[in-house]
Design a protein that fits this description.
Blueprint (H helix, E strand, L loop, with lengths): L5 H22 L6 H8 L3 H5 L5 H25 L3 H15 L2 H13 L4 H27 L9 H21 L5 H16 L4 H10 L1
Helix pairs in contact: 1-2, 1-4, 1-6, 4-5, 4-7, 5-9, 6-8, 7-8, 8-9
């Protein structure tokens, strides 16, 4: 049998990951079987096992894909002239546009990480990646004089994640929750945490000096 081209292998791998994500979001990690994922992807177990040896390996694949997407969004935030505007846009993507069942899948995986050592390692690695990403971003903004938080950057990053996690959780578990109604207040809370420095603030400081 001829070897598949790399781009075909990548496409098949992504197709299986998409199917696994749909199944995990719909039924949860425990209730989803490899057979369920094979049916969703329209592939045989043998074809799936070419790329992933277990449900945990599928979680790792989804996590790595999310890491790459998150890194792109951090780059977007870092380079945005209007940081708070960019953050608002990102928040709308996560909390208004992204399906709630995707959030439920993430929470389910988080709970599974407390019981399953392999999933725990994957989850902690991803969580650390996000935290360190925001720490680096906020440190860069502070060094550039674009924010002036009253707390140290590690505390700011962790507090920011607590706020985000709260929105994430509420969207996942409360069918009556409308994130759009609390988004302005949430952004105001983040603004108080980061203390963005406007151009007028810079000019006023320069005059005082």
């Amino acid at each position: 049998m001829p070897k598949l081209k790399p781009e075909v292998q990548k496409a098949r791998r992504e197709h299986i990951l998409d199917a696994a994500q749909k199944c995990f979001a719909r039924s949860g990690f425990h209730r989803t079987s490899i057979q369920d994922i094979c049916r969703e992807a329209s592939v045989s177990p043998g074809a799936l096992y070419v790329y992933f040896d277990s449900k945990e390996a599928l979680i790792a694949g989804i996590s790595e894909r999310d890491r790459a997407e998150f890194a792109e969004r951090l780059t977007y935030l870092s380079g945005a002239a209007d940081f708070m505007g960019a953050l608002r846009h990102l928040g709308e993507q996560y909390f208004l546009e992204e399906p709630a069942d995707t959030h439920r899948m993430c929470i389910d995986i988080g709970l599974e990480s407390t019981r399953n050592p392999r999933v725990g390692e994957i989850h902690r690695r991803f969580d650390k990646f996000i935290l360190e990403g925001f720490e680096k971003l906020f440190q860069k903004l502070e060094d550039e004089g674009r924010i002036a938080p009253i707390f140290d950057i590690p505390t700011v990053a962790r507090t920011f994640m607590v706020i985000s996690d709260g929105m994430f959780w509420r969207r996942a578990v409360d069918p009556d929750f409308n994130p759009q109604t609390v988004m302005p207040a949430t952004l105001r809370l983040v603004e108080e945490l980061l203390k963005p420095v406007s151009a007028s603030d810079d000019q006023r400081t320069a005059r005082e000096e």
